[in-house]
Design goal:
The chain is of the alpha+beta class. The protein has a single domain, classed as GIY-YIG endonuclease (3-Layer(aba) Sandwich), CATH 3.40.1440. Helices cover 40% and strands 28% of the residues. It contains three helices and three strands. A hairpin with a 4-residue loop joins strand 1 and strand 2. It starts with a strand and ends with a helix.
């Protein structure tokens, strides 16, 4: 199993889109620890969207699709429709 996820930081008012073959709990912990990269800029990331797939390839394709939108409005629509 694999997951496509979106996390949100209120501090940055930004979304981060990713995919993982690890548990989402493990992945979020990595985002919240000290590291280099975009998510290191804040420590208040919260999961706002999850979609589970049978394979990592499917999850990575969904991540690429969402990133390709380049639209906060479409991302927020996706998040709202998943609730």
């Amino acid at each position: 199993m694999a997951t496509t996820y979106i996390i949100f930081s209120e501090k940055l008012d930004k979304y981060y889109i990713g995919s993982t073959h690890n548990s989402i709990k493990e992945r979020l912990e990595k985002h919240l620890t000290n590291h280099d990269g975009f998510t290191a800029k804040a420590k208040d990331w919260k999961v706002v969207f999850l979609e589970i797939f049978d394979s990592y390839e499917e999850a990575a394709l969904k991540e690429k699709t969402i990133k390709g939108w380049k639209s906060r409005k479409m991302i927020e629509k996706l998040i709202l429709s998943s609730k």
